[in-house]
Write a structure and sequence with these properties.
It is a single chain. The N and C termini lie far apart (56 Å). This protein is α/β, with parallel strands linked by helices. It has a seven-stranded mixed β-sheet with strand order 7-6-8-9-10-14-15, with helices on both faces. A five-stranded parallel β-sheet has the order 2-1-3-4-5, with helices on both faces. Strands 11-12-13 form a three-stranded antiparallel β-sheet, with helices on one face. 43% of the residues lie in helices and 19% in strands. Strand 6, helix 6 and strand 7 form a beta-alpha-beta unit.
């Protein structure tokens, strides 16, 4: 009888949420009071940068998470209970990300889909493990993001990105003179660079220059680009964020240096940089788990729904977050958990269930190992006429 009453109440709340369209505000009224009773809804938090230099990542993740929540609630929720979502801004800052985590805990968060950038994700994971709160990062790729047993990832790791990038260049551009430009102060960039360099050496690729910059000097790349040109690099591997990548492309164009630039998932979003001349990205290649141009039914549904709701094409960060929410749903249903369970009980059940599901997502078919790492195949896309095309 208690279960029937709870289920009826959950359906009532779901209808209310659908009518109000308030998934983003987390089911809270304008004065901050919570409208949902504990144990009758899932409280799933999100953390990411929705302001600042990395805002493209957080906005994409928040939007896709919101879209997935709406779809799941419309289909009956998770195990008969609707989802309430609350997303906090961390400005791509580790300290602010931890503050956001604590605020979401106070709100009653039971699971976390976040954060999308590696540095903040690592710090939040070190907090969430103390609570045994289940954490799933959409696109944090540093190994430390999933070092704790409660933490899993949707996007493939930095090691996988470096390995796959080297393998692709070996198969398609063997014989090219390859230069590397990376951010030595960032765990994401340096991690991919190290993996790429190691695998490039194993494969016999020709690395003619290895240039770096740091967070204290990431606006002027003239010297590094000149060194790459002098070394004869006709392919330049750039495993860093779209903000710096846009500057690199602008400065390379200004000095008349036009190699093939090859990046990884963090460059996705470069076409949305305010004031950036998209023509400068012509021919840019990047490794990504998602292409909105893919013709499978899941991708077409997601892309269409995202465009209709947000009036723009989803990037891979949106796709990872969308798959992340559906992975949470699949694992929660596999474990047959309910919102009445404690955070730690939910966390332990989710940790086991994640290794037992197989998700047919928009970023591929994904399975997870006990160490939190996903298994799926990346794609390589090239920018032509301002859009991504699968290579």
């Amino acid at each position: 009888m208690k279960r029937l009453v709870a289920t009826a109440l959950a359906v009532s709340v779901a209808l209310c949420l659908a009518a109000c369209g308030n998934t983003q505000s987390g089911g809270e009224s304008t004065d901050g009071s919570t409208t949902a009773e504990a144990g009758t809804v899932w409280k799933i938090g999100g953390i990411g940068p929705v302001t600042g230099s990395a805002a493209v990542y957080g906005i994409s993740c928040r939007n896709a998470q919101e879209l997935a929540v709406e779809e799941i609630n419309a289909a009956g929720g998770i195990n008969g209970y609707p989802i309430v979502m609350k997303y906090d801004d961390d400005e791509h800052d580790a300290e602010k990300s931890v503050n956001a985590y604590n605020e979401l805990k106070d709100w009653g968060m039971q699971m976390l889909l976040g954060t999308p950038t590696s540095g903040p994700c690592i710090q939040v994971s070190n907090e969430s493990v103390q609570d045994n709160l289940f954490q799933l990062t959409p696109c944090g790729v540093a190994p430390e993001c999933i070092a704790n047993p409660n933490s899993f990832a949707v996007c493939f790791s930095s090691a996988q990105q470096g390995e796959k990038s080297a393998a692709y260049l070996k198969s398609r551009m063997d014989g090219a003179k390859i230069g590397i430009l990376y951010d030595a102060s960032d765990v994401y960039s340096s991690g991919i660079r190290d993996s790429f360099a190691e695998n490039a050496k194993k494969l016999g690729l020709s690395i003619v220059a290895d240039e770096q910059f740091t967070a204290d000097n990431k606006t002027d790349f003239t010297i590094q680009l000149q060194n790459l040109r002098n070394a004869g690099a006709d392919v330049v591997f750039i495993p860093f964020y779209y903000t710096e990548a846009a500057l690199v492309l602008q400065q390379s164009h200004a000095m008349g240096y036009q190699p093939t630039f090859f990046g990884c998932d963090a460059i996705d979003g470069i076409l949305n940089v305010e004031g950036f001349d998209k023509s400068l990205a012509e021919g840019l290649m990047l490794l990504t788990p998602f292409s909105a141009e893919a013709e499978d039914a899941a991708t077409q549904h997601f892309t269409k729904a995202y465009r209709e709701k947000y009036h723009e094409t989803p990037d891979q960060f949106a796709a990872d977050a969308y798959d992340g929410m559906y992975a949470i749903k699949a694992a929660a249903e596999k474990a047959n958990i309910t919102p009445a369970m404690s955070v730690s009980e939910i966390g332990s059940a989710m940790e086991q269930a994640m290794t037992e599901i197989r998700l047919q997502g928009v970023t591929g078919t994904i399975t997870w190992s006990a160490d939190g790492a996903p298994s799926k195949e990346p794609k390589v896309v090239i920018i032509r006429n301002g859009v991504y095309q699968i290579c």
